[in-house]
Structures are given as C-alpha cells and as structure tokens.
Amino acid sequence: MAHTTMRTPSPTYDFVVIGGGIVGLATLWSLLSLRPGARALLIEKEPQIAAHQTGRNSGVIHSGIYYRPGSFKARFCVAGNRSMRAFCAERGLPHEVCGKLIVATDASEIERLDALAARGEQNGIAIERLSLAEAQAIEPHVRCVAALRVPSTGIVDYRLVSQRFREEAEQAGGEVRTGVRAVRVVAGDPQVVETPQERILARHVVNCAGLHSDHLARQSGVSAPARVIPFRGEYYELAPGQRHLVRGLIYPVPDPSLPFLGVHLTRMVDGSVHAGPNAVLAFRREGYRWADLSVRDLAEIATFPGAWRLAATYWKVGAAEALRSLSKARFVESLRRLVPDISAESLRPSEAGVRAQAVDRAGRLVDDFLILSVPGSTHVLNAPSPAATASIEIGRYVAETAIYGREPDAPPVASGAPKE
Fold first, then answer.
1. Over the stretch 18-27, which tens digit does the pLDDT of each residue have?
2. Neighbours of 248 (CB within 10 A)
3. Which residues contact 245 (CB under 8 A, 6 or more apart)?
4. Which domain holds residue 57?
5. Dihedrals phi, psi of 313, to nearest 5 degrees
6. What pLDDT does residue 16 have?
7. Is the pTM of this model over 0.90?
8. pLDDT of res. 63
9. Looking at the domain assignment, is residue 103 inside a domain?
10. Residues forming beta bridges with residue 237, ordered by sequence position
11. How many Å is the Cα radius of gyration of the chain?
C-alpha cells in the first residue's frame, strides 16, 4: 500500500507564516524588520505567491473613507495608504496617486454621499465636494448630480509589491517555500505545522491562509468566531479603443449595509480599465467560474447556520447580483449609471477574483479585520479589501503580536456592524 513518508521535523523556527498572499508576505517582512536575525519561514500551498485575493483585485490603494472610525479597517487603511505609497515610491515600484470620484447618480443618493463625506472627515481624509461640472472636468464622461473627490486614492500592482516583500524578506534571511500546504497546527512547545511532506517546528505560527484561514484555525483546535464564505467578484475590461471613457477611478455611492462597494470603474497601472466587481456566492473557496464546484465547500456553507441567516437577510441583493453575473446587459446597465457612453461592445470578460468574507453564526458579515491571538499562534481570520492597501500596517501589527505575545493597542473588533 502506497504511503507518504513524512520527513524528520526541521530545526525549530522562531516564526512560521502560513499563506503567501500580500498579508502573509508583509508579516514575514515585518517580523524580520522587527527581529533581525530571526529564523522565519513562510509556506504557500500554490506554486507561486499572490495567487488568489492578492493577484486578482483592482489594484487600488484605498483612502479609508468607507470604514467605521476607530476600527481596524479605518486605522490600518488610512495609515496603509501612506505607508504603501511610500514603500512603492522608495523602491521605484509602478504606482500612481490619481484620486477617485464617488458619484451620486440621483438625488436619493445625496444623503448617503454626505454621510460618507462626514465619515471620511472623521478618519482624517481630505475630501472635495464637487458639482456635476466640477466632476466632469476630471472625468468628462461621468454622469452624476454630485460627487466626492478623494485625492489620496491610488493604483498599484499588488503582485509586484508582494514580490518585493518576498525579496527583501529573503535578503534579511527569511525563507519562502511554495508548493507546501499546511494541514494543521499542533499546539505545544514548540508548535508543529503539519504538511503532507513534513512537520515544521516553530515557536510561533501565523495563519494568513486567506480563503482557508478558518479551516486551518479549526483544524488546529482554535475556536474561530466566524466562518469564511467565498464571494466571487467578476470583472470586465474596457476595449483599448474605449479606455478614454475613464481617466481614473469612478465609484458609486455604496450600500451602507454591505461591505461591498458596488460595481465601479478602475484604471490600472498598465493603462487598462477594469469594470467590476459584482459579488456572487462562489461554490468553491477558489471558485473563479460558475462551473467551479466543491461538494465539501458547499456542504460547509449549507450546514453553517450563519449562511442561512445571511441568505434570509440579503436574498434580494444576492439574487440581483446573480442575475447581473448571468446577464452582461445588467452589468452594462450598472456601469452606464456612472458612464452612459459605455456599451456592451465596449466590454470584454476579464479575470475574476474571490473574496474571503467572514460571517458569524448570527449571519452578520464581519465588517472589520478579524485577528485572533492564542498562545503560540496568531490567526488572521478576516482580511478582505482594503487588506492589500493596509498590508504593511496589518503585517506590523501581527508581527508585534507574535514577537511580544500581546495585541498592541488593539481596537475592539466589530462583527457585522453596518456602516452608518
């Protein structure tokens, strides 16, 4: 009978980070910045880093305007906007601080636009209120009754940022191994990270496994207060001849009860313009197409009470998102509310992403970063957007938690609190 031979445990590492997305790599980089000479290892199950959420997003350096004052998201995103821009500028990584418009397309959205401006001002963000004429001076093809301009918003390629984190961590003596899947972490002194090939010993383990972070926590005996539910975000791209319709970034006023920002238009650092994403339930944790299906992942969703309570609350929104996914005409209609000159012929399908969204048992969307620390390990259990923007700040926070054995200056984590 064939069997897998497990290698003898490695010498003990000071730190093992699980997950090679931008948050995991920023954590490895921060650990070695704060503790030079430490033995630190990052393992990633895919053959390459930044394969999922990090490499499949719109590449925006967010300002922090949307998030509840005092929350992790607000604090880390506002600070992360500055630190990410500085990181890229100091290293010559391609990025642009282009600002963005958030537009009210009819009078019923003005009150929400004003509330959003007030929230941004509470978070210390510079905001300009614009009339239609002023908005069209920036984006000639936009349609709105009023708009906000957020000058600090930028664009970047987070794959390149992740690669730079890796290079600098390796130069500092860290190790990165791809194609290594963590099965579970066995608590002890030292901690034991079990993989199909070997047992890796560590004084402290950091779980940055993204779409699988709650799996890994539960397999390791950690009681996770929420479950990851995957939502696929689908994108279109403007044909090259239509890119002139969008100069920068154009966003709708978001629904304050949801963590999703609505379908928007984003110019990328390579000059392309992406439209999206929507938000539809994925039938697999890494389900980038309707055809991607995992019986185990669907069974987990179906047997989780929070999923049913979430569906009961948001079934109309979910149905509308599914219809928009299946109908290009509906997708185009959403975009034409922002830029009427966009047509179906302007768009071609682009790469989809999957958002790892934590949901608690009450069916509430966890509306903040969720970081859980237990003796010997730290678990990043909810880090959707704006985690890439905030990755340097999250990485530093998690590294300090791992090194000092405490949560430094931690604000309370708000589960499911809707944005006002």
1. 999 999 999 9
2. 19
3. 141, 238, 273, 339, 341, 342, 346
4. 9-96+154-226+366-420
5. -80, -40
6. 98
7. yes
8. 97
9. no
10. 274, 348
11. 21
Query: Which CATH number is 53's domain given?
Result: 3.50.50.60
Provide, rounded to the nearest whole percent, the portion of the chain with pLDDT above 70: 93
Distance (Å, whole) CA 28 – CA 34: 10
Residue 92, judged by CB atoms within 10 A of its CB (0-12, 13-18, 19+), counts as: exposed
Model pLDDT, residue 406 = 58
Amino acid letter, 338:
L
Short-list 25, 15, 367, CA closest to 210 = 25
List Cα–Cα distances, 390 to 80, 122, 406, in angstroms.
4, 18, 20
Total tally of structural domains belonging to the chain: 1
Q: How confident is the model at residue 218 (pLDDT cuts 50, 70, 90)?
A: very high
For residue 110, is it left (φ>0), alpha (ψ between -120 and 50) or beta? Answer: alpha
Q: Distance between CA 36 and CA 30 in Å, rounded? A: 10
DSSP-derived secondary structure letter, 45: S
Quick check: bond before 418 cis, omega within 30? no
User: Is residue 375, in this structure, part of any structural domain at all?
Assistant: yes
Residue 61 lies in a domain: yes
Non-local CB neighbours of 155 within 8 Å, separated by 6+ positions: 59, 60, 61, 95, 96, 98, 249, 266, 267, 268, 269
